[in-house]
Amino acid sequence: MSVRPSQQPAVAAKSARRQPTHTDFLDPAALATVEDLELVARGVVEGFKHGMHRSPYVGFSIEFSSHRQYLPGDDLRHVNWKLYGRQDRLYIKQYDAETNLDLYLIVDASRSMLMASQRLTKITYGVMLAASLAHLALTQRDAVGLTLHSNKIIDHVKPRAHPEQLFEILLPLSRLDSFEPCESPRVLHEVAELMPRRGLVVLIGDFFFDMEELSKALEHLKVGGHDMLLFHVLDPLEQELTISGNVRFRDLETGREIITRADDLRSGYGTAVEQWRAQMRKCCNGLDIDYVPLSTRDRLDRALATYLANRSEMY
Amino acid sequence: MISFVQSGFLFAGLAVAIPLAIHLLLKQRARRVDIGSIRLLQLIMRQQNRMRRLREWLLLAARIITVLLLAMLFARPYFDKTASEANQQEYVLMLDSSASMRSKDSDGLTLFDRAYQGVLDELATIHENAIVHIATFSGSDVQELQWEDRGPLVRPEPAFGPTDYGRALSWARDVLEGSQRTDRHVMLFTDLQQTGMSPGSLAESAPRMQVTIRDFGTALSRNVGVTRVEAIANEIRPQLPPKVLVEVRNFGPLLRDMVPVSLRLQGPDGVLEYEQMASVPAGGSTRVVFEIDHATPGIYEGAAAISIEDDLTEDNRRFVAFEARHPDRVLLVDGDEGSSVFGSETYYLETALNLGKTLSRKELPSFETERIIWENGEGFPDLNGFRVIVLANIGRFSTTDATRLQNAVLGGARLLIFPGDKFTSLSAAPLQQHGLLPASHATTGEGSPYRVTTWDTEHPMFRPFADPEYGDLRRLQFRQVIHMTPVADATTPAELQNHWPLLVEKTLGTGRIAMFATTADAAWSSWPRERLYVPVVHQLLEYLTDQHLREESISESVATQQVGLVHAEKRIDVQNIAPRESAMARVSVEEFRQQYGLLDADELAELTPAERAALAAPVGSERPNEAWKAVAWLLMGWMILETFLASRVHT
After folding, report:
1. Distance (Å) from the alpha carbon of A298 to chain B's nearest alpha carbon
2. Whole-angstrom distance, CA of residue B137 vs CA of residue B143
3. What integer is the mean pLDDT of B8-12?
4. DSSP string, A264-314
């Protein structure tokens, strides 16, 4: 892993190769150069918040903070109707922070996540994304838990809202060093049993599974009444087959190889990926799961914005 | 069926290994890329693989065919599906019409009759679409026979010329080299006479033609022929009559005894007939000499013959003609006998003039010389019959002798005067008075060597010395000469330095007088010992006796169409069969083929079609049925297809 948590975040921040800017923290390629995972997570969230003034989700967390006068254009859902009944004036409720949301981060750490056509592997991207989401959630006082899996559960951290929880989350993410294959989503059934309380489940992976099996696994996860968000992370090469000539493709999961001319397959492959993602989207939509296709080239704020939008819908 | 002019280029077809190697290398050289899952790739490949592989194979096939077409283009293909058919056949039938073909076999038919019948039989089997040339060959004469519309062939007559196979085969080769047809045959109808094997090989071009030899010769020859008839002496001298040599050669394996050899000549005095019996050994020859007694000057013509029964009767007689004449008589008048046999001035002259007779060299004219010593002026003998009178070192001369000499010169005799120690103005006076000196004699120069400086190269006497390579007259030098002043009507064909004449001449009546500036012996010079002495003396005497004007009225040649004596104007041409035609020894077919590097039908059959086609192809010419243009167009189209396929496969 190119990122790891730091015992002393302040010191770790100094050990960064260079001082990243807010914008850098949203660029996955730039983030991959930063070794401190906590710094990465904090940088991503800070960078994300820095540009959040345009976001429609600003100020609407779960925990009530104060009132302000209604202004045209405010969401009527946040009008305090009781107060209107008493004072005959419209006030908008403002919230401070969440206190009772459980965020389950389920990260695929199988071999296929080691794919990297450029510098950034899918697992690095996924880890940075998970770390950022954890940090963001903890700043909002949500409880954050983590499950790492391949074809079995590698590590599991129960959700807690304690400020030290970020370290608990980052530690297994940074310790990843062996990767097992994961050809089937059966492990997700086990994962589903580890989430007793209703919460927000975030799945991060490449999901090279049989669609039917995946559908069943997701359905199982959904049984707990969770809100679910699925980040489908692919390498640009996996998306568009950006390679030419004769290529011996090796399947990272199975080790099998095929030789072909990439040029011949490119157009058909692109279509197949689109169809696959469309199937994934359809499957997710059917289960009321938010489906977010990501490329390791995509900035992380896109994922965070999706997360926040999803969270806000819950409350 | 398709064949190739340059079949060697087909080896270029091995270059198909290049696209094959490219195909295999491209297939093997693939870089490895890790990917999360090949599931989708496999899915697409299952859909696309069939089409892609088809295109790859098509591309490979297109490339291989491109290379093959290229090789084929350079190999110049042509369609010879009719090669074995008659319209690709061309025949040259060579009928031996040499003298030896007149030889008769036991049935009384000549070899020529049988060979001609062989030609007719062969013609009957040749397809009407084949081109046929028929020719007879004899000596250097090859005559093509007209055979139009496959009508009856006019029977040619055998000739008398010698056999020359090299010439015949060359003629056939020249005919076939220009042919556009591929199946070429030469058929030789002959007796395979060994003496007809003229040197030379046709190995380079002969394999292009299939040569068939039809042998009509007889196994065993019993021929006897007259191979030489020649007048070995044709001058009429006392006790030495003209002689005619007749050579009879026996080519058979048995001795021929008591062969009557006859000579019949028509001479100026009528017909002369001679006969002798001769015995001719097997494989050898006998010479018979006939002496022509009481010969008179004139032309003798006739033939020598043998009366014998043998194969070839045409060589049993051989014609001859010769001219019998008296030699030119030269009277050498010497003014000093000398102290020894070498002492007289005319000794060297006489020796030089008789050299031709002594050496029996026909190219040297012989003279009949007679020498008298004129020490006291005893008087001339009868001057009639002497063609040249040579006066050397004459000291005394009477008016009577001068008058006789003048009459002889006026009558056509030639006078040649050499000076000497005794020759003075006093002795020259009677000659001068009778107009017999071409120059006045003033002083004698001596001491310094006198060299010949200029001479008239157009003068009949000096013409051979125009080129110094054949004798440089400037090498002659004389210690002593007389200084002559030519008379008015005299000419000076050669001069010494200071323009002193070396030779002065003039005409008198029908005669001619010449005077030399130095002696004919070694008294005043050493020139008799020079290599030029004999040629100069002979030239001088030939000129004076007008031998240079005498045309050779008799010639000999090898007969071609006829034998005998051919009279044309004042000339007689003696035409006889070449002696080697009488030799009936034969060669085997194998030897014949080996000599000329010929392939027979079996050897040709062993060749591959490509080799045979290559042999048959005329060098540098294009066949009318060549398909290279079509192949070139096909190749161009194919390359466009290949480019299209490559773009489809590799994009």
Report:
1. 18
2. 6
3. 75
4. HHHHHHHHHHHHHHHHHHHHHHHTTEEEEEEETTS-HHHHHHHHHHHHHHH
Domain ranges of chain B: 2-30+38-80+625-650, 86-221+584-616, 225-325, 328-549
**Which residues have CB under 8 Å from B296's CB, separation 6+?**
B236, B267, B268, B269, B324
CATH fold, domain B86-221+584-616, is: Rossmann fold (3.40.50)
Q: Identify whether A34 is part of a domain.
A: no
Can you tell me whether residue B539 is helix, strand or coil?
A: helix
CATH of the domain at A302: 3.40.50.410
Identify the H or E element spanning B50. Answer: helix B39-74
Task: Mark yes or no for CB contact B36/A265 under 8 Å.
Answer: no
Q: Does domain B328-549 have CATH number 3.40.50.1100?
A: no
User: Are the Cβ atoms of B33 and A243 closer than 8 angstroms?
Assistant: yes
Q: How many CB atoms lie within 10 A of CB A68?
A: 12
Of A164-168, B305-309, B544-548, which gets the smallest average pLDDT?
B544-548
Query: In this complex, which of B34, B44, B52 lies closest to A269 when CB atoms are compared?
Result: B44
Q: For residue B40, which residues of chain A lie inside 8 Å, CB to CB? A: 269, 272-273, 276
Most confident of the ranges A59-73, B50-64, B318-332, B356-370:
B318-332
| β-pair type (B439-455, B477-486) | antiparallel
> What's the rounded Cα separation, in Å, for the pair A42 and A48?
10
Residue B287 confidence (pLDDT): 93
Q: What is the pLDDT of residue B184?
A: 82
Element (H, E) at B31: strand B31-35
Dump pLDDT digits (tens) for B333-381. 888 877 777 777 888 888 888 876 655 445 566 788 888 887 766 677 8
| B603 Cα to chain A: minimum distance (Å) | 56
